[in-house]
Fold each of these.
Amino acid sequence: MTADLGPAVHENPVLETKGLCKNFGALVVARDIDFALEAGARHAVIGPNGAGKTTFVNLLTGALPPTGGSVLLDGLDIAGLAEHERVKRGLVRTFQINTLFNGLTVLENIYLTVAERMGVATGLFRPVGSRPEVVAEAERLVEMVQLQDDAGRTIDELPYGRQRLVEIAIALALEPRVLLLDEPSAGVPGAESHIILDAIAALPADIAIMIIEHDMDVVFRFAERITVLVSGAVLASGPPDEIAADERVRAVYLGHGHG
Amino acid sequence: MTVPTPRTNNGAAAGALLRAHRFRAIELIPWILAIAVYFLFPGYRLLATQILVLILFAISLDLIVGYAGIVSLGHAAFFGTGAYTAALLADAGWQEPISALALGAVTAGLLGWVSGWIILRTRELTLLMLTMALGIILYELAKDLDDITGGFDGINFENTAILGLFPFDVLYYTTNYWYAFAFLVLGFLVARTVVHAPFGRSLVGIRENVRRMHAIGTPVQQRMRHVYVIAAMIAGVAGAIWVQVQGNITIGVYEFEMSGNILIMLILGGTGRLYGAFIGVTVFTILENLTETVLGTDPPYWELVVGVALIVTVLFAPRGLLGVFDPLIRRFRERTP
């Protein structure tokens, strides 16, 4: 957990995109995006609604195939890797809208993830009950996000904010090297949002994190670097103070409702 | 929130996960009933044998429908392929029943492997249509090749005694009953083992949320294909037993009605719980038989009765007949931590 918190001088980013493009017919949702995420980075991606932020996440994870350009993980083009193969290499995302196993308990949600990461999920014969180490690891993660009192509740039974924590616990269970957080506090009532933000602040320092967020307080508290997306293209990218001072950014984004 | 209820805390949830695979005394009930029926109703052994085989068939369907969430309207493709493998082998002189049945499982499994490669790339309605198409193609093929399959008239064949000791008995269904019973026990144990293994849990994950499964690193399509093959093999065994105990096969084993009925039986009993197959098949078959006995077969009133039963089930017990007991069981568990 001792990470180098000095200025990022890594030559090789963990995750990088070069000229990434995506069209749906005539509609351009990603336009020539060059982006780099270094080990231990805290990088926010902001932009008005419809700027293509979630599309960008989907292009990174492989949920959507790009129309052009490339995504590189550790310097290698991962175009040929399916979504699940990218996860196995440490590229993990959370969803803007909770995407969980709603009929299963919190612990089962985490258990499935741990089993997959540990490579035991293909086991046909030995029952879950004779693999206590997998269950114990799931319990540990449940405690990490402080859901131990809700472990036996199904996701359906939980308030939205607590479900959000399960999203984060699942991401942690995958032991990510690169974590893409898609609006982690979206839909969470103000009174509960600190639970999410604390959980994010407590994430291991060596994970490279990209966060998509609308809440500027969160962005400026969390990010060491900010990229502004507008209409699928990068408008500006730099340290928070630079972005805050950028006239173009103020005009298209911060100007709306934040003035 | 200061005093967590016992059901919901971490330790209790982990305990539930760790104990889920253990056998409970209540699970003996269907087997005791199956043994009792043999002795109490000797006149109904033919019907009872059919029920045992159909339960095995329904269990195989439950693996894909109830666990992995792959709804199929063409499961008879595997049932029929297992059946024809066993029957044609016997007809050609390979009369040892258990090896023929094993080969039936292999051919059905191969069909599952190959067809799954295409079918499981699709989803929902497309997938449903493709499973149905496979069933119909095989049925039409079997009809066209009637010099091999015997068509509507069928083929009569004989098997040697089971393990060289117990000859099949098509009149009184003594050996036949226990043959079906033994393979039902075996097939059930395989299915039960699989669903309680991490593999089976991951199928439930696929049913609950495919997108999330991709995002936790599951090769979803591969996993679905694996369970598809397992289900196909068990269905193949069921098909082989179905024709071996009758000493006769017709293209009826490939009929769409076979696929449709087994799905209805499963939904009637409750999906995703293995024991739903037992209840659904038994209720459906007895209902069918009763109405035929009481009201005759012309017109086929039983279809009306089954239709009404299904509508009532879907409306009032959407989780199937066994699902009716879920709230009671949950309340009982909450009271006794």
Note: The two ends of chain A are 39 Å apart (CA to CA).
Amino acid sequence: MTTASEPKKNLLLRLLTMNTSNEVGGRDLPLWRQLLLQALTLLITLEVMFPIMYIITLSFSSQTMRPSALQLLPREISFVAYQQVLDRPTANPVTFLELLRNSFLLSVGVGLVALMIAVTAAYAFSRFKFKLRQVLMIMVFIPLLMPAVGLATPLFLLMNSFRIVECAPGVLAFNPFTTCEGGKLLFNLRDSLLGVGIAMISGALPFAIWNLKGYLDTIPRELEEAAAIDGASPNQIFFLIVLPLAVPQLAVTFFLGFIGHWQEFALPWLFLTKPQDYTLSMTLYNMTGQYANAIPWNRFSAFAVIVALPVAITYIALQKYITSGLTTGAVKG
Amino acid sequence: MATMEIAGTVSYGARLRRALLPYLYLLPAFAVMAVITFYPLVYQVIVSFTDFATKDLRFGLASPTLQWVGLKNYIDILTGGLPVQNFEFFRVLTYNFWWAITNVMLHVPAGVLIAVLLNVQGLWFKKIYRAIYILPVVVPPLVVATVWRNIFDEQYGAMNQFLTTVAMWFGATDPVRIRWLTEYTPPIPWLLPNGPLPLAYYAMMIANFWLGWPFMTVVATGALQSIPKDLYEAASIDGASDSQQFWHITVPLLRPAMIPAAVYGFTTSFNLFAFVYFMTGGGPARTTEILVTFAYDLVRNLRLYGAAAAFSVFIFFVSLTVFLITNRITRATETYTEA
């Protein structure tokens, strides 16, 4: 089986043996082995593409019923389903733009606030030596052990006790500080995007602090030392030297957070009751299970594609940072 | 750090300010965490000793109907005394571990093998395959779960349609109607003695396999590329076969990278809330319930806040145990290359 490396190959063979892996030298693969491996990789490609093609095909269909036989390639490209979903995603009186706005408010807001609070703490843990350093670092680490759902109960109960009640026209009571009998409930922190956001920050903060601390540890100290010799105060060093250097990692931490918060489901689904506060992931859940029969398949598929896209795009744009961060972190243990 | 003490002679006041500076930098984070993390943690423990339920929502701990029940919630959870059907703590706990372990046991070998396959010298279209194989990592797990839930739909699901097509090749005429997510009878009853593994478990394993191995491939690819090529050359000169090279060079040198990745995969699968909740919701009859989905059900649907708080305390200790064990495994294998 040495025919593969003969110099006069036909065009097809030459195209196939074109070096696409940027490797120089090394053994040439015998053709039969190459074909065997190609068959394997193609099989894996099919496995990967199966659900993706399935959902994309459904989303481009104008039929509201599912096809009775398996279809993995679109027979038609129709945007009817997308149009309908953008128009009116569910039976609730809420528009797609409102859902999108809620999802964005939560994921971007939580990401930014957590980052702003986390960065100074990460800097303190990374650069200063002080008495309670170990104790405080463990305190930040403990919440990371708890799965996000683990704090849902107390957060729900605590947020639920913050309400604004209109006791009489013009007379407001701020629970739990002032109370009154009866009255009309105007605002319940638990049942608002603000409340969900606060609860989500609780989960996001420890991760942001640890992630940023890990990165700040890798920034060489020479610059800071030089600045200190030149008479810069610690605050100046932080704001003028460290912070600008940390911008790339701030961005990565923000987008990693964004990917997570965009999919956040547990807390909003527990807290929110008003349809106009719903997020995209809550709506996606509404489209499955017991309510699924009311939603045409093509609309569900279009909606799933829409929910997945921002995450997929962010991920692909940041792939280099994310995988390198995860692997170096993993190797370090 | 020596860095901060360079700036010349310091007066007492300046030194005090310097000593307080780290706490000033920590203040925002700890002020916020005190309110939304540490206080809720304490509150959780307090609530776990009460029978807090919907009736007490309005007044919280000050509720006149609130009863202190001591350890009742904890005992109820352990002995199955909760007013919840089909719940048994140790069954859910065993299933949860089984679910996480079996997932990792499939994902890691598959991920490594596919990484090795993609690392074969001279393989065509390598870059295209690498780009395609990353796709499952990129799709949000929540969407993955809903899509696979539809694939396993009894009537119109792609899986049954696919099986129907295959069955037709073998001469079958009836469409395949497997009740993937609702059938209760376990197909292999002896597999997990402590609890039934219904078809839904296998369906979820398939879906999570799709989701899980590409990450392992990414990690393994990175580690493979750092193995020096001359090791293989030396081995083949000494007459080692391909499989010998794989077992004696590739596997040992991948281990330091793959064990932390496996640990990460384990903890992720162990607490895979959104995926399980979206795909089966713990059903049928709570057989695919994991700890976090059950805790969520206690708050969201059953509204037994006291029991939910107690259950979360259990989850905390289980997570702590898992962390201590996995941390030890990671530490023990960390220095492999130096040993």
Note: Chain B has two domains: 2-74, 87-338.
Amino acid sequence: MKLDNDNHVLTRRIAPGLAVVLIAIVSIGLMIVDDAGEKLSPVRDVLSVMAQPIEMAAEWPGQTLDTLDRYFDRGALLRENERLRQNNLLLQGRLQRLAALEAENERIRALLASASVLDQNVLIARIMSVSPDPYRQYVKLNKGSTDGVFVGQALIDAHGIMGQVTDVTPLGSRAILISDPNNGVPVEVNRTGLQTIAQGTGHAETLTLPFLPNNADVKVGDLLVSSGLGGRYPADYPVARITSVRHRPGGEFLDVGAAPAAELERGREALLVWNTPEPGPAAKNTPSPADGLSGESDEAEADRP
Amino acid sequence: MIVGVRISALMMIATLAAALVLTLVPVPPAIASARPAFYTITVLFWVMNQPDRFGLLAAWLAGLMIDVIYGTPLAEHGLAMAVAAYGMIKIREWLWGLPLIQQTIFVAPVLLIYEFVLFWIDGVAGLDVNPWYRWLPVVSSTLLWPAWAYLLERIARAETRHTG
């Protein structure tokens, strides 16, 4: 074996044992700094721009197959068109009723002198990829800061809340899903107004509700909607439906499982929502059940920092 | 084994990029948890094959790319990659003389070290990630090693033939 030593790498000059210790120290330092805040985001930005072509290349086969599929299967297109048409009619019908309800709601809110809910702006984003790491639940989106996406923005799909944006680069963003073990959504039980938190489990099909006392009024089939506390997620969107309620003998809390309403690992598109209505100062005077808890909303929110 | 033959940095980067694409291509979840770590074994192969060109620092930088793509704390995979590369540096002089199949036996513990460092950091970070299938990529990557090393060796040899 011959080694030319004219082209030195750092590790040729110092012993590998020492080098690996140095690298370990630097790495641990980086992890701590990265965990503490945004200080390293320029480094991340530079590296993620370098990684962009690779990620696009990885997406390419799936997307091409999709396009080819659509191109060749005219029958499926026609069927899909028919289904969408029917769906549209159905939704239009519901929307008419909704418009009336919204107007009524507005009037009642005016009577209560509470802050009115603004129209919500949305942006359709394409889901570029789901997490390749089986232990973290997130999606990558093709809309970034150039489209006005910001950290903390809520992500929904046609059925409910999906998650929130955690990283934004100029051309893309990453959103953590509600099923990530690090994510919690402040919710209320639609039937009773009971407030609690839905916590991710790492599986796309299950959330848990770890903070419900034994005497809480919850039943299988109850719909959980976002309560809007914490100010991250918009209020009143479906989050999940309760699938199991188990009472552990001797335990202080119920063992409650729920299935997310949104199609977390199946959808191709998602909506980014602007305007997360927070309880305004005027809302403090209203005797709504949400107000009793609004002071605790900061602690109530178990979001990832 | 053609250790010491210098292949261009461009070629190494190209193989790493290709391996990274293979690591990221979406596949059904059942396959995804057992997918071989193409990128990791490519890095380890170059650590073994290019002792004076691809060292610890290069392995660490390669790991940082994974951190950025996965969104993990910066340097988590970097550290794992550097530690695994160190293991590879310690044993590579034996590996040079061995046929590919026998190399595999020695590569398995290095891959295990890589996965263990990640497991350990996740544990310290308080992530509850301890399913048994976490260790599947170690098995699949080990099984892939002979074929993958053979392929990379052919690429290295082809390039040196062209450039003389």
Note: The helical segments of chain B are 9-24, 29-32, 38-49, 56-70, 76-95, 100-124, 136-163.
